[in-house]
Write a structure and sequence with these properties.
Oligomerizes as a right-handed, spiral filament on DNA at oriC. The protein is an alpha/beta fold. Helices cover 51% and strands 10% of the residues. The chain folds into four domains: 101 residues, GMP Synthetase, Chain A, domain 3 (2-Layer Sandwich), CATH 3.30.300.180; 168 residues, P-loop containing nucleotide triphosphate hydrolases (Rossmann fold, 3-Layer(aba) Sandwich); 72 residues, Helicase, Ruva Protein, domain 3; 91 residues, DnaA protein, C-terminal DNA-binding domain (Chromosomal Replication Initiator Protein Dnaa, Chain: A, Orthogonal Bundle). The protein has 20 helices and ten strands. Helix 3 links the parallel strand 2 and strand 3.
């Protein structure tokens, strides 16, 4: 088919369309680097991509969108699009289609040669254990470099780094636990990406626990447990996210038990994540609970303000967005629930800046985040804290007011008092009143005791941060 528009017109139209449709982060990572890498040649749009990973991502995720966008300027018919690993010759990008078409000068790089066109993939019941990002299911952006480190995740990061440097040798399994959106997936995928970078032949697979459950069901339906086992048992590094999804799935747990044993026996690395430590996952078979505790269990806590600021600055930098430190502090102080929410807030602020075509100040950030802040500023009530803590520790709300002093009651009550101090504007005497008419010195003592525990007892620190997260969300 003849393309009657210039490369410039065609490609800039496609870029515009993609920029409108994609999240800024996706656009910046995958499409923007190709801004000067297209050329119309012999009726085809040739796009040069930097490497094989790009080629696969573009082919699998964005090629359809590019075709649709291109069709709009080619009389409704999508042109033939060719993806190549390499770079175009310097003068090529802006070449006019009407000019005599030269063969696309793609300078091949050392990356393995790419198939020139998207090849239809045969439907597979289980993926061959492969070593590219698509088969590994790893997000290449989830690396140790892009992960901001702070008190909240430094132990987990150090352990993950050790595992990445010596898979199957140091901690096996590595079990990472923490609340929603705190970076468990990012950290574990960083291990996968690191291992892949240093040993491209290693068979690595990241999987969400739900997908594993589905695979077990499929194997059951198709009587293909042999294929299933062959695939999973051939892996060198297995990452399973949100293992709590195994609860109530006995057949899955049984299969996973065999897989776990087989991989560990042959020195393969297993990395697991969950929202709780293994023995708190109710409904997990005891043999799994104990095996999950064989290696190292590490927490990820919600980040403190300074770390939230650092995360915002890093994310903004990755998007080439100039974020003023005062604005970063403002966002970090107001969005405290988790990193995902923090990212969401930053995206809003960036969109607002683009929309108004102005740089962002604290006032305009306030405006951009108005509705989020309004819901976030909703005061947590002492009643809500008492109920949440009582449910968490499976005691009665009435125990928050009672005189009972057994530890299983007194400790949660102290925790609830400390949380009330942190989350409300209530004075110590008012908190004392709300907890069965206690003296303000009792409240102060409770706050100090909990503070000490949080320093010395990792589990208590975790429970406190989980409760904080629950109450703030
Ligand atoms: N320390 C960090 N530095 C940079 N980015 C982070 C950090 N922690 C989390 N993120 C980012 O926050 C987002 C949420 O993280 P992630 O998906 O890894 O959380 P999660 O704990 O696995 O959540 P879930 O419990 O919902 O599965 C991701 O975009 C991730 O890159």
């Amino acid at each position: 088919m003849q393309i009657n528009v210039s490369t410039e017109d065609l490609w800039s139209h496609c870029l515009n369309e993609l920029q409108q449709s994609l999240a800024a982060s996706q656009f910046n990572i995958w499409i923007k680097p190709l801004a000067n890498s297209a050329q119309v040649v012999d009726g085809s749009l040739v796009i040069a991509v930097p490497n094989q990973i790009f080629l696969q991502f573009i082919r699998d995720r964005y090629l359809g969108m590019i075709e649709m966008a291109a069709a709009k300027v080619c009389n409704g018919v999508p042109p033939h699009i060719e993806l190549k690993v390499g770079t175009l010759a310097p003068a090529a990008p802006a070449a006019r289609a009407a000019k005599p078409a030269a063969a696309p000068e793609v300078v091949e790089q050392e990356a393995p040669a790419a198939p020139a066109q998207p090849a239809p993939k045969p439907a597979k019941r289980f993926d061959a254990a492969g070593s590219n990002h698509e088969l590994m299911r790893l997000n290449p952006g989830h690396t140790f470099d892009t992960l901001v480190t702070g008190k909240a995740n430094q132990v987990a990061r150090a352990a993950a780094m050790q595992v990445a440097e010596n898979p199957g040798v140091s901690y096996n399994p590595l079990f990472v636990y923490g609340g929603v959106g705190l970076g468990k997936t990012h950290l574990t995928q960083a291990i996968g990406n690191f291992v892949h970078q240093h040993n491209p032949q290693a068979k690595i697979r990241y999987i969400h626990a739900e997908k594993y459950v589905q695979d077990v069901v499929k194997a059951y339906q198709h009587k293909s447990f042999d294929d299933f086992k062959k695939y999973y048992h051939s892996l060198d590094v297995l990452l399973v996210d949100d293992i709590q999804f195994f609860v109530g799935k006995d057949r899955t747990q049984e299969e996973f038990f065999y897989l776990f044993n087989a991989l560990l026996e042959s020195g393969k690395q297993i990395i697991l994540t969950s929202d709780k430590i293994p023995r708190e996952i109710e409904g997990l078979q005891e043999r799994l609970t104990s095996r999950f505790s064989w290696g190292l269990i590490v927490p990820i806590e919600p980040p403190e303000t300074e770390m939230r600021v650092a995360i915002l600055m890093k994310k903004a930098e990755a998007e080439h967005f100039k974020l003023d430190a005062a604005v970063a502090f403002f966002i970090a102080k107001n969005i405290r629930s988790n990193v995902r929410e923090l990212e969401g807030a930053l995206k809003r602020v960036m969109a607002y800046a683009r929309f108004t075509n102005q740089s962002i100040t604290v006032d305009s950030a306030k405006e951009a985040l108005r509705d989020i802040l309004a819901s976030g500023n909703r005061q947590v009530s002492v009643e809500n804290i008492q109920k949440t803590v009582a449910d968490f520790y499976k005691i009665k709300v009435a125990d928050m007011h009672s005189k009972k002093r057994t530890r299983d009651i007194a400790r949660p009550r102290q925790l609830a008092m400390a949380l009330t101090k942190e989350l409300t504007q209530m004075s110590l005497p008012a908190i004392g009143d709300a907890f069965g008419g206690r003296d303000h010195t009792t409240v102060l003592h409770a706050c100090r005791t909990i503070q000490d525990f949080r320093q010395s007892d990792q589990e208590m620190a975790h429970q406190y941060s989980v409760l904080l997260q629950m109450l703030r969300s």
